[in-house]
Amino acid sequence: MTNLIRGSEDVCQECLLPWQRDALNAFRNKMKDKEHLFPCIPATQSFSLGHLRYGFVGQPQKDQTSLELGQFTKRVHDKL
Length: 80
Known about the structure:
The protein contains three helices and two strands; from the N terminus they run βααβα. It starts with a strand and ends with a helix. Helices cover 51% and strands 5% of the residues. It is mostly helical. The model has no long low-confidence stretch (mean pLDDT 86).
């Protein structure tokens, strides 16, 4: 599992796997695109205000992933 990534902060790109960097950058580019607006206003506002939190967990087929997701959820809650 990755560290908690706060939406308003730049993340250490070297700390992520290439596919994680690609996914995070694609999401950020989608949210910032002024020509093709993201259809969810609350999501774009939350993104702009830095309220979103991100993290990467393992493959959904593995039992360990549900534990990682639980840990991630707890970390997000504890940081609020």
